[in-house]
Structure formats: C-alpha cells, structure tokens
Specification:
mainly alpha, 24 helices, about 80% helix
Length: about 500
C-alpha cells in the first residue's frame, strides 16, 4: 500500500484520545440504559417505548455500516456518479417501503400479541415452531458473519492510524459493544445509536465540505471531471460496472428487501405508536438520504485531487480527505464517526441475534416454561458468547468477509416472500413458506457461487426471490392454510384495530 502510506500518516495521540473519550461516553450511556432494562421486553425491543428521535436515529445508524463510509465512497471514487446514483436511491427508500408494506401492522401486532422478533411473527402467522427454528438458526448464522465483518473494519482503521495490530482494534470494538448491549440490551443499543448517528452525519457533512474546498470548488471539480474523467459523469460508470440490470437490482435490494432483515423488524416492534413510527421513518429517511449523498459525493470529488489509489487502498479515501485537510484532532474525531458506523451496526445485529437464540430457540422451542426473568439472564450471557464469536471471526479475517455481508443480506432477503404473502394473502401456508424458503436459499447459493449467468445480469437475489414467490404460491394452493382463528387475528382483527387507531389519531388531531 505504498500510495496510501504516502497519503495517510498515523496520528496515534489524537486518535487514541478521541476514541477513548468516545468509548467512555458510550459506556456511560450503556450504564444509564441498564437502569431502564428490567424485563425481557426492555432488553429485546426497548419495552416498545422508543420515541421518534431515538427510533429514527437508531434505524439509519444501524443500517449504515463501515462500508457506508469506506467501501461506498471508494466505489464512487473509482466509478463516478454512476455508483452514487445506484446507492443513494436505494437508501432513500430503505425505511419508507418497509414501513408502508409491513411497519404499521408489525407495530400493532407486536404490542397486542407480545411479538418481539421476526421469528415470533412467522411462527404466530403460520402456527409453526418449525418455521421459527429454520428462521432463527439461519438468521443467527448470517448475523454473526455480518458482525465479524464490522469488527474487521475497526481493526483496519486502528492499524492504519496507530500502527497497532489489527486484532487489538477488533477486540476493543467488540468488547465495548458487547458490554453496553449486555447490560442495556436494545435500550442501550438504540440510545447509543443517537450519539453514533449524529457523529456519522457530522462526518458526512464535513467530509463533503472539505472535499469541495480541496478540489477548488464545484465548478473546478466539474470542469476537471468533464475534461479529464468524462466517464465519471456518465452511465454505466468509469469501469462499466453499472448497466441497467445492476442499477435496478441495487435499488430494489436496498429498499424492498430490507423487509427481510430481522434488525428492521425489531425496530418496528420498539415503536410506541403509529405517529411515532411515521416521524421516525421520516427522520431516519432524511438522515440516510442526506448523509449518504454527502459522503458518496465526497468520493467523486476526491477523484479530482487525490490520485494513485487502487484496489483496497480506495477504501481509505474518506480518511485521506479528512487527514490531509483538517487538524489531527478534528480528523480523528470524524474518523471515529466511521468506527461508530460499525459499532451501531454490530449492536443492532447482536441484540437481534441474541433474541434469536434465547427467545426463538430456547424459550419457544426447548423450554417453554422458562420465565421471562430467566430468559433475560440468559440473554445477557448469550450476548457475550455471540459477541465473542464475532470477535473471533474478526481476528481470523477470512477472505472475502465484506462480500459475505452482501451474501448474508441476500440470504435473509429471501424471507420477504413468507412475510409479504403471510401478511397479505390468507391462503399462504406453512408448507408453502418452508419449502419456498429452502428451495429459494439453495437456488440463491447456487446462482451466487456457481451459476451467475443464470441471473441475466440482475443480482441473484432478484431472480431467486421471484422463484421463491412462485414456489410458495403453488405449494400453498395445494396445502392447508392456518386456522380460522389465526387468520382472523392477522387480518380482520388487525384491520379493525388499524381503523380504530386511525379514528383515534384523527380525533386527537381535530382537538
């Protein structure tokens, strides 16, 4: 990494100081959250008491990861505005579309039927512990891999800015997140997300302003792109990476298929009212759209005044912009914002994975007689164990782990079929759901690893999910649906509840 070594110099004193103070602040928030965490509901879904600010910040903070501030700006640095036009629209709708399709119903069902996890919903809708087990096991495996990938990013940043071995950064980041999640659960994760989300927005805004100044202003940047790098201004991008199939795939993936992500499901269960959910969705969407635009545009701008980066070196384009144009202390604070992007993602994944093991598998399948207090104690222990597993993955740093994030996202995205059909089609059956998911996952793995040409240029998730929907519809038509009582709860009763809530809100508004 000779070019990067020239451009990016370690600043251990400022980096140690700002990171240490930031971690201490997170620990203080975790300690405060622990005082409010007295039940299993508090631990897994914040007791359903999340307000608009906490809910909005928590969603976009956990949605953003290390790749948002490293990999994505690297992509726009190399390919230009084509990469930005693929990523930003998907992020803009990644909370709106799930809220419109499933958010309101999930919030109401969570409060009325004590649902706390995505597996809770699937098991209740399809009257099946089998689908609970299949989903919980698959979810935990995918989420551990995602957590490990985030810790790798922290290790790389610590190594770059201090010279310390990467494993130290992995361990430090992992331990801090485990501690505040263990004692504070979802309350700790979402409250720290507010601080982390604010720092991420600040990092995005300052990086953009600095990149414009370093490039000589927007007119100079645009002129240089037009004369020296015209492919950065056109589709399909400088490297031809974004034909229309990829463009469609990426937007659909990052908007519609977030419905299948367990962390999003859990966020809806934490909301305290429909009004709160609406405000949180607007706030979270604006936060994501604004900060994503700023940080990705910074990568395009940097192509005009930073040259020579290639391969994995381009992942450090944002730290290079900050360190070369700001004082070491301010740069270190904003680079801590990149670390916080990984921490907020890990905390959300960790609490949801813990719920998958303790509530979905242990309480609902292995030991139904266990009390909520026993499950709460076990949840804290399991948080530590799952955190250790993620730290081990981060230390081992298996090849292609960042690619595994997208792979895992796709694997979980297959579950959108039983969610959507279960919520809007009474004839959807458990046999249809399980067979469709198993065949869909097998098709996804095969197409991703061995048969990429079968996707016709689209992301394999698009094709495999369409196949999953067809399988589920066909099998459901030939198998028995859920009982009348379950269907009544999930359709007629829920619709009546929605109408009553809407009338109540209109009455409050008129007064």
């Amino acid at each position: 990494m000779s070019n990067l070594t020239t451009l990016l110099q370690p600043e251990p004193v400022s980096f140690y100081t700002t990171l240490s103070l930031f971690l201490l602040l997170l620990g203080g928030i975790g300690w405060y959250a622990a005082r409010a965490t007295k039940s299993l509901s508090d631990f897994l879904v914040m007791g359903g008491k999340a307000g608009a600010v906490v809910g909005g910040f928590a969603y976009f903070a956990s949605q953003y990861s290390m790749s948002t501030f490293m990999g994505v700006p690297a992509m726009t640095y190399s390919t230009g505005f084509a990469g930005m036009s693929v990523s930003v629209p998907g992020l803009a709708f990644s909370m709106l579309i799930p809220a419109l399709f499933v958010g309101r119903k999930l919030m109401l069902m969570g409060r009325r039927y004590n649902l706390m996890t995505m597996s809770d919903y699937l098991s209740d809708r399809y009257e099946s512990n089998a689908i609970r087990g299949v989903h919980a096991v698959m979810m935990v495996i995918f989420l551990i891999a995602m957590m490990g990938a985030q810790t790798v990013g922290a290790g790389v940043i610590l190594n770059t800015f201090t010279g310390l071995p990467e494993w130290i950064g992995v361990v430090v980041m992992g331990v801090v997140v485990v501690l505040y999640c263990m004692i504070g659960g979802m309350t700790g994760a979402m409250m720290t997300d507010v601080l982390q989300g604010g720092l991420m927005v600040a990092t995005a805004v300052v990086t953009f302003i600095v990149s414009v100044h370093a490039g000589g202003g927007m007119e100079a940047i645009t002129g240089k792109l037009a004369t020296e790098m015209p492919s950065h201004l056109t589709h399909p991008g400088a490297k031809g990476d974004f034909p229309w199939q990829t463009y469609v795939s990426m937007i659909v993936m990052w908007s519609f298929f977030t419905i299948g992500q367990p962390t999003l499901f859990t966020k809806f269960f934490t909301m305290n009212s429909y009004r709160t959910m609406f405000k949180a969705v607007i706030l979270g969407t604006l936060g994501m759209l604004f900060s994503a635009t700023m940080i990705e545009w910074s990568g395009v701008n940097a192509a005009t005044f930073i040259s020579g980066l290639s391969g994995q070196e381009t992942d450090f384009i944002v730290p290079v912009i900050l360190q070369q144009n700001l004082s070491p202390w301010i740069a270190s604070l904003l680079i801590t914002g990149i670390v916080s992007a990984g921490m907020s993602t890990i905390s959300a994944l960790l609490v949801v994975a813990t719920g998958g093991v303790t509530r979905d598998i242990y309480q609902n399948m292995l030991r139904p007689q266990a009390s909520s207090q026993q499950i709460l104690t076990l949840s804290r222990l399991m948080t530590v164990l799952l955190g250790i597993a993620a730290i081990i993955i981060g230390i081992m740093k298996p090849a292609g782990i960042f690619a595994l994030i997208r792979f895992a996202f796709g694997g979980l995205g297959i579950w959108v079929a039983p969610v959507i059909l279960g919520m809007y089609w009474k004839r959807a059956t458990v046999a249809g759901a399980i067979s469709a998911v198993i065949l869909g996952e097998l098709a996804y793995v095969a197409m991703k690893l061995w048969l990429p040409d079968w996707s016709f240029g689209f992301d394999p998730l698009i094709i495999c999910w369409s196949f999953t929907m067809v399988v589920m519809v066909v099998v459901s038509l030939f198998t028995c649906p859920a009982s009348d009582a379950t269907l009544k709860r999930h359709f007629e009763d829920l619709q009546a509840l929605c109408v009553r809530r809407a009338r109540r809100h209109r009455g409050h508004s008129e007064h």
